[in-house]
Design brief:
By secondary structure, the protein is of the alpha+beta class. The protein contains 13 helices and 31 strands. The strands form 6 sheets. Strands 10, 11, 12, 13, 17, 18, 19 and 23 form an 8-stranded mixed sheet that branches. A hairpin with a 3-residue loop joins strand 1 and strand 2. Helix 6 packs across helix 11 and helix 7 packs antiparallel against helix 9. The longest helix has 25 residues. The radius of gyration is 27 Å and the shape is globular. The C terminus is likely disordered.
Length: about 600
Amino acid sequence: MTEREPYAGTTRKLVLAFDVGTTYSGISYSILDPGDSPVINDVTRFPATDRVGGNSKIPTIVYYDGEGNPRAFGGEALQEAILERAEDEEWARAEWWKLHLRPRNVPSFHVDDLDIPPLPPFKNAIDILADFLGYLFGCARMYIEESHANGRDVWTSFGDNIDFVLSHPNGWEGPQQAQIRRAAVQAGLVPDTPEGQARIRLVTEGEASLHYCLESSNTADGFKDDVGVMVIDAGGGTIDITSYYMTSSASPPTLHEIAPAECRLQGSVFVTQRAAQHLREKLQGSRFGTEEDIALMKSEFDKTTKLRFSNPNDPSFIRFGTVRDRDLEYNIRSGQLKLPGNEVAALFEPSAEAIIAAVEEQRRVATQPISHVFLVGGFGASDWLFSRLKDHLEPLGLQFCRPDGHTNKAVAKGAVAFYLDHRVSARVAKFTYGTRCAVEFNRNDEEHLRRAATAIPRPSGRTVIPNAFSAILRKGIAVSETKEFRKDFIVECAERNTCDTIATEIVCYRGNSPNPRWADSDPAMFSNLCTVHADTSRVSKTLSPRRGFAGMQFYRQQFSIVLKFGLTELEAQISWVEDGEEHRGPAVVVFDHVVEAV
């Protein structure tokens, strides 16, 4: 357990962490009182939680009526009365909707939108996230008011002094982070102002899970100097894997990433999806092979069979009917289907293989040796998965364990610890980042000669080749939170007022080349993250005219692109010199001058 310094703030503050998972969601919080050491608490009561076993997480389910109004959330959405009313009034059920936010570049050849339950009419995933965040906020308020002495006065004392920590899978990037922030505003958590956005912290599920492990007494031996640790967060939708190395040069000791974080779309929901398809094929020809019966079996498999499965040598059972339901040819007796253990194991195996592949990739590229591996997350509670991974990892000399406590609460609790402790000092760039630009034509360069037909004459008389890529930060580089990466560029303009503003794209390269030079050589691997703008109208007025080809007058503006990747979100700016001083424009995330490398 982390021993924290007393809170140094001057006023009371509430920190709320919402873990909105694909299948289940949870809340943790900390009340910060000046002079008191912060303590992390969980919200352990939700409306209708008796329906989900009193767990401190609730199903990530919403029912919408025909007009698009949310009518039931979480455990309430599983109550018999709600299910009956939803059927009678034709409400739309939203589940697994978080997967509709997924970036298309995350490895997911086995998944398309048809594999995920459709969104309700007139609702997108951001709308549903906003509604669910609003519901979680109400649950947090109700819990604090009911669980603390003078609870209503305690809640009132926070006012607007509430900060939010919102987690997301490792594979979610700038566009998804922007969507999460938009949903938080839409939910009414914060106003859409710079001050409001400053009250939101985003953290990857992998880093939140690391902070959870740092809280656990069972993992203490794994966090020592000169030891690499890996955290596997196995959730409902994604598997998030991160690796860290501890250094004691700081006090308290800090950790830094030693490999790019991994994300795989192979969480427990895909085991359930494979089970449904297996049952359809297995029960072809049986009177119990109807879609209605398959849906019942799928639901039962998800709620019980999947959770209990541990040994491929023992059969598993799916109860779906009455004692009179039997079809011996298909191993159905007394309303339950008997499945050989090896068939159930085959449903889990693709997820295990994806985790093992990600683990091996982390070990391959890690800059320090890894000795300990920790498994957390709701899917991590699977005894079969734990045993399967243990059989692979321990022969490699890796220490493997599940931390104490409820591992399905790792992200929410770890997100609060991330806010309080901030133990990760450096993170590894997952991709190469830079910008598209033009470079001066070099007749001795083969790549330039191949692109000679695309050459563009500039006002200065020089000839440039477009579609070059200028890398500013390369994949695999460890970046501290304060370290900046920058590169200089120029624009040439025939008219001075054209230099009044500068806008350029920040581009991500996802391929395997260590030195990508041309954006047109493998265009599918390049994508725009955002566009950064700068108002350079004041300095443009001071630009002196130059003479170029045939005496043509032109103006040249020099600027730099600055990237900061140490935080969990991308920060990008344009900088320029004005009256001898550096000025910077804000980072403006917009998806969609010829800029040239100096």
